[in-house]
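Usage example:
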Amino acid sequence: MTTPLTPGATIGILGGGQLGRMLSVAASRLGFKTHIFEPGATPPAADVAHHVTTAGYDDHEALRAFAEAVDVITYEFENIPTEALDLLETLRPIHPNRDALRISQDRLTEKTFLNDLGLATAPFADVSDKESLATALDTIGAPSILKTRRFGYDGKGQARIMTPDEADAALADMQGAPAVLEGFVNFTCEISVIAARSIDGRVAAFDPGENVHRDGILHTTTLPAKVPSRLLTDAVLAAGKILNALNYVGVLGVEFFVTPTGLIINEIAPRVHNSGHWTQNGCAIDQFEQHIRAVAGWPLGDGKRHSDVVMENLIGFDMDRLPELMADPANALHLYGKADTKAGRKMGHVNRIVKQN
Amino acid sequence: MTTPLTPGATIGILGGGQLGRMLSVAASRLGFKTHIFEPGATPPAADVAHHVTTAGYDDHEALRAFAEAVDVITYEFENIPTEALDLLETLRPIHPNRDALRISQDRLTEKTFLNDLGLATAPFADVSDKESLATALDTIGAPSILKTRRFGYDGKGQARIMTPDEADAALADMQGAPAVLEGFVNFTCEISVIAARSIDGRVAAFDPGENVHRDGILHTTTLPAKVPSRLLTDAVLAAGKILNALNYVGVLGVEFFVTPTGLIINEIAPRVHNSGHWTQNGCAIDQFEQHIRAVAGWPLGDGKRHSDVVMENLIGFDMDRLPELMADPANALHLYGKADTKAGRKMGHVNRIVKQN
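Running the assembly step on the lines above writes:
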């Protein structure tokens, strides 16, 4: 695909959660239809999508019909089964590409890729069993953290090893899955960059935000980050390096630890990212539209920040605060329309506009 | 309805055009579903609505099913048949209310209502036939303009009378419809106010914009308007007076002529308005969300302007400029996903961000 998709075209999106929902809204702004592929019933994205296919990733007939009904395929999450992608890519372009998925799906591959680019990560070692964990602990030491190589998000699939005698319990937590041991990083804060690359290779980045987590889930992202501007520039340059190395098309999220010796990359996500939700009320073009522009072959939009924003995730019973949140004129609310409030479930977020620049 | 609708509730929208489309997007942001009622096939709003009923306004069964499936009813256009409203209002609340519709549907009723509130309009007179037109011309003189009392928009149903001998031709243009003769107003420019009123009677207004028309259709809205601030205040106060007099709930558009002797109201529209599209890129809460907030019983949001914006409508083959429009980073595009480009058809708009304040 070298010419931009024209209004009326259909963007296929794998995954129908809140990211798919907000991607659908952005696509509609540019005159596109969206078609969601999602195994679960009544996904949040269905409320604003032109079409929804409810089927599993092993349903080749449904995958084929989905691909044939759309002009380009993108996704809201990285853990898409390989066989499904093998089929889909024979039928339509997939952005971001398979390399980006392959690398970001596996913590070991990802960290190796980043180190090969000259980008710093926490020290790490491959762990497949008791013996390799013992060897890894010898090199990396404790405290450290054991993580499954795949399918980890929001703190799931992780076990801390404070002292070597906790190694067996941590390994048991992995439930036999291949894992990676990561050394603890002594960081002062976490920042992230949401950056985008267009089909013709242009790169644009939103201002880096400062992230605070609670219980392993993103709690707030604050703009501007209170971090020396030299480090913010380093973060943007690192994101650009990754985008170019992957010949990437779309939006990428990169999380960094800020340490006394510089930045260390925590992880990358080949998609729109929770820590980029502030762009909806801080920029003329938000991360969702930027992603749609890129995968549709459009030029990227202007991501300049016009406001200072604090994004706060509304998790589970944070929704009880809705009456107070809706009444405060500094708040821009973004709710996902999920039917049931559950502890730990991302129900929405609020962008608090602190100052208009 | 006195308690705010909670996320997951459904907003029913009469009309599936671009205004319904952008209202649906705003509703999704607050966690609501939308259900569109629209006689035409494949309306623009269908791409982003949870549900669409395709039926005529004389289909009482469809109207009843629609009303029973939603929590509150609103609309994107004012010319809804009275019988349909009579049925719908027995089943669900309709915002804005019937008075607002009754008054804005009829130019004669509207001007009488405004004069009764002490708000200036062009001189006008009721015209039903040759004799009443002659009498009206005696009072108002020429040049003047004959307009159908109902169903006029974007310059349709209007005929100029430059000299009295054009009276017969102008009357013929009305095709027998009741009409109103309006005196020409010597104005320097047109401004409009988009204002909102919540269920508990609070009023908020966006900054007035300056409008330029071409061929009877809105061409641009520019913020800020280059008009003395005293007049901008007058405009906002007039809008507030109208909202309160109507016990109005939702967003109202009011168009004013700026004249050497002050403001004259051109017309009011009981809905989101083309001249309010700039708010999508000029404010944290745009006119569409403000309307949804009001009809859902929520408190109004902050409509403070953070940027100077020029909104330009993309009409018909303006769409040929898309490659250049999408490439300019100052432009925020909003396309309606209409399948066929036709001369005179509103295809989208572009908000050009001139300066961030």
